[in-house]
């Protein structure tokens, strides 16, 4: 699948937003936020998207797309946690 996103807003260290320029969605806008919290940083994602094909797209969403997106973000959360846990074990603070 060919998919291209562009960074629409770059606002370090607080957030960045990517939007689909070419890909499978009718629209895709993904906001990544970095919130300073006691003891570290909280990462928050907000994804607003729309599938093509009207009713067919909504059916495919329920059967396939929602599950795939949940799996992708679950994997990303798990991987980020593992990376930062390893870093803290090795004394990295930044």
Architecture overview:
The chain has 94 residues and is α+β, with helices and mostly antiparallel strands. It has two domains: 1-50, no CATH class; 52-94. 38% of the residues lie in helices and 40% in strands. It has one helix spanning 54-89; strands at 4-11, 15-22, 27-37, 40-50. Strands 1-2-3-4 form a four-stranded antiparallel sheet, with no helix packed on it. The mean pLDDT is 89.
Describe the secondary-structure layout:
Elements: E1 4-11, E2 15-22, E3 27-37, E4 40-50, H1 54-89
Antiparallel strand pairs: 1-2, 2-3, 3-4
Gist of the model:
The chain is of the alpha+beta class. Helix content is 38%, strand content 40%. The protein has one helix at residues 54-89, and strands at 4-11, 15-22, 27-37, 40-50.
What labels describe this entry?
2 domains; 40% strand; 94 residues; elongated; alpha+beta
Strand content: 35-45%
Radius of gyration: 16 Å
Number of domains: 2
List the helices and strands in order: EEEEH
On the 0 to 100 scale, the average pLDDT is: 89
Structural class estimated from helices and strands: alpha+beta
Largest beta sheet, briefly? Answer: 4 strands, antiparallel
Tally of individual helices = 1
